Amino acid sequence: MIKYIGSKRTLVPAVLQAIAGVEDVHTVLDLFSGTSRVGHALKASGYRVLANDHNAYASTLARCYIAADREEVEHDATRLLAELNALPGTPGWFTHTFCEQARFFQAKNGARIEAIRESIAQRGLPPELQAVLLVALMEAADRVDSTCGLQMAYLKAWAPRAHNDLELRLPNVLLRARHGKGEAHELDALEAAQSLRADVAYIDPPYNQHSYLSNYHVWESLVRWDRPDVYGIARKRIDCRTRKSSFNSKRRCHAALAELIRTISARVLVVSFNNEGYIAREDMEALLSSRGDVEVLTHDYKRYVGAQIGIYNPQGAKVGAVSHLRNVEYLYVVRVSSPPA
Fold first, then answer.
1. Which of 53, 187, 186, 79 has the alpha carbon at shortest distance from 132?
2. Which residues contact 117 (CB under 8 A, 6 or more apart)?
3. Are 11 and 98 in a shared domain?
4. Is residue 186 included in any domain, yes or no?
5. What is the mean pLDDT of each run of 10 residues along the chain (341 residues)?
6. Which of 46, 282, 304, 339 is the most core-located residue (most Cβ within 10 A)?
C-alpha cells in the first residue's frame, strides 16, 4: 500500500483484537478509511466492511481493497495491467506539473503515468475494475516517487527509487468476506455516520492541522484526472485551499467529533486518536462516555519518517529541530448503552 502519514499498520492487530472481543459482529464501518489498511485487514478477517472517506483517492483505494472481490476482477485486471504496462509514455499536464514544474517523479515515469491514466479513463470500465487499475497505478507511482511519503514537498536530490522504471502490479485484492460484500463510499463523515449502519464503527479522524488532501494532492489529481489549477512549489490542487475539514481545525474539531459520536449507530465504537491530537485524552474520554462505558488501550510507536528528519523551509534549509520521535496512540473502545441522537 502507499506510504501514508496516517497508516495504522502497527495498530491493526490491536484494532482486530478489540473487535474480535465483541460478540456477533458481521459488519464494521470504517468511517475515515484512508489507505484502507484497517478495512483490508477487517475484510481478511471475514467482516463485511463499509468504508468511507471524502477524498477521491481514498474512496478509490476502498473500492479496490474493500468493495472489489478478487474472484470477480482478477482475470480482467491481470489482462488489462499487461496491456497498460506495455504503453509508451505520453507527456502532458501530469508530466509538466509534477515532473517539470515540480520533481515528484522523473519525466520518464511521469509520461508513462500519464499515458496509463488516460488509457484507463477512455475504457469505460466498471467502477470496481477501474479502481483496481487506478490503485495499481497509484502504488506503482508511489514506488518511484521522490518524497519522504508526503506530497507537501519533494526531495532536493532524487531518491534512488525514482530512477527505477514504473511497473504496474495487481494489488492485493481479497476474496469476498464470509459476512458479505463490502462497500466504498465517498461521503462527508457526518453524512456517512447518519446513513450507514454497522455492528462496530471504527473511527480514525484527522488528529490535527495536517490535511490529507494537501499531503496527498498528487493522488487526488491522479484519480480525479481533472487537471486542476495548481499553486506553490508542490503544485497543489487549488481546492486544497477551500476543501477544509472541521477535524483539521483546533477550534472546530471537538464539536465536529461530538456531533459524529452522538449520531453514529453501532453497538460498539472503536476510536483511534493520539497524543499529538487537538483533543486531550481526558476530554476524549468525557466525550465518548456520553454513549457508554469507555476502555482505553495505549500503543507506543515511532513517528512517520517526515517527522524524524527536522523542519525545512521551501528552499531546503533546516529551520527547526525534531521535538520528539515517538507518539502514543490511544484506542478507545466504547460499548454503546445510549441510542444515537
1. 79
2. 94, 134, 137, 222, 225
3. no
4. no
5. 75 95 97 96 98 98 98 98 98 98 98 98 98 98 96 96 98 98 97 97 90 96 98 97 93 95 97 91 96 92 52 53 66 94 80
6. 304
